[in-house]
Amino acid sequence: MELLDLGVLSGPVLLFGGPYSNLSALRALIGQARELGIAPERMICTGDLVAYCAQASETVLEIRRLGCPVVAGNCEKQLANNAMHCGCGFGKDSQCDVLSGAWYAHADRAIGGADRAWMAGLPDMITFQHAGRHCAVVHGGISDISRFLWSVSPEAEFQEEINLIQSLVGNIDLVIGGHSGIPFQCEIGDVTWVNAGAIGMPTNDGRPETGFAILDSSGVVFHDLVYDHQAARDAMQAAGLTQGYDAALTSGYWPSEEVLPPALRRAAVTKG
């Protein structure tokens, strides 16, 4: 378990997850941060730099140039270990598992040894102090880097992860997680759990915009990220990544909802 403590951060902190090899989205986010006057040391990524989209090596290069803190996602772990699959936690032979084969193979071909070595050195958890709060950043969870936690997940599942985090770093007030790709905030006892979402893929809500979050002295505010999603789709199609995630960039809907809890699938959300 590799830990990185950033000490005390002052001013707004930009939280984001899942660049997913979407260079257009990452560059738009960096532009937003500059407009807001947020320096790279106050931009924290919850991992999965590399995934569905086409520009894996370019996205890693952009992040490395930026120099912001990054928690290792399952994709970084797998690439660092030269593994043959993404380790996303998809059910074996599920549609998500099958679809992941193409984009992971594309990323595996694109990422070189130097970037894999850099990924191997990424921390499993980041901690920092902000406005009197002790904050921890993880990817999916401590028990499982690929653990899916959703807004509708049982409180006991969040509490299990909080207990594990606190066993490592002491009492915390805020957890920032990633992996699932859909932003939310919930209260688990005295601890706030936030998922900042993913900038590289829409949130399955029919809109091409993605999103990020900003932590300030009053709490967390979620923001849309508007970027050139057509350019990202064109790059995927040029690379032959036409299994469904390319269309998701413009339609705003994932090609498969198998990984989602029933309450978060389109039919349930529309009915609600």
H/I helix tally: 9
Number of strands: 10
Domains counted in the coordinates: how many? 1
Task: Return the CATH architecture.
Answer: 4-Layer Sandwich
Beta-strand percent range: 15-25%
**Secondary structure: helix percent:** 25-40%
Strand order of the largest sheet: 1-4-5-6-8-7
Mean of residue pLDDT? 95
Family: Belongs to the metallophosphoesterase superfamily. YfcE family.
Organism: Roseovarius gaetbuli
Domain Calcineurin-like phosphoesterase: 38-216
InterPro entries: Calcineurin-like_PHP_lpxH, Metallo-depent_PP-like
Please tell me about this protein's structure.
- The chain has nine helices and ten strands.
- It has one domain (3-271): Purple Acid Phosphatase, chain A, domain 2.
- Strand 5 (133-137), helix 6 and strand 6 form a beta-alpha-beta unit.
- It is α/β, with parallel strands linked by helices and 272 residues long.
- The longest helix is centred in the middle third of the chain and has 16 residues, at 95-110.
- Helix 1 (23-36) packs parallel to helix 2 (56-66) and helix 3 crosses helix 5.
- The protein has helices at 23-36, 56-66, 74-80, 95-110, 113-120, 155-169, 229-238, 245-251, 266-271; strands at 3-8, 13-16, 43-45, 125-130, 133-137, 174-177, 184-188, 191-195, 210-216, 219-225.
Topology:
Layout (H helix, E strand, L loop, with lengths): L2 E6 L4 E4 L6 H14 L6 E3 L10 H11 L7 H7 L14 H16 L2 H8 L4 E6 L2 E5 L17 H15 L4 E4 L6 E5 L2 E5 L14 E7 L2 E7 L3 H10 L6 H7 L14 H6 L1
Parallel strand pairs: 1-4, 2-3, 5-6, 6-8
Antiparallel strand pairs: 2-9, 4-5, 7-8, 9-10
Helix pairs in contact: 1-2, 3-5, 7-8
